[in-house]
Write the structure tokens for this entry.
Amino acid sequence: MGLISTVTDALAGSTETAPGVAGDDGSEGAYWCDDCAVRVRDVDLDDEGLDRDAEGVPVCPDCGESMRFERASGPGCAC
Ligand SMILES: [Zn+2]
């Protein structure tokens, strides 16, 4: 949890366009590149213009690796 919260803090205020409760704008989560600490919310993919791999998964604009989708925390756990 420490890593995630650190990254979130680092990104706060730089790329956030809709601070508030996750999901209030239709977002179900965000795509992460763990190596680059890049995060793009699913609803921002079009604006960011990210490329996608053969499976439709967005790829990191910095290193080109497929990004990891992380659902926004909400009621219940789908783990
Ligand atoms: Zn990357």
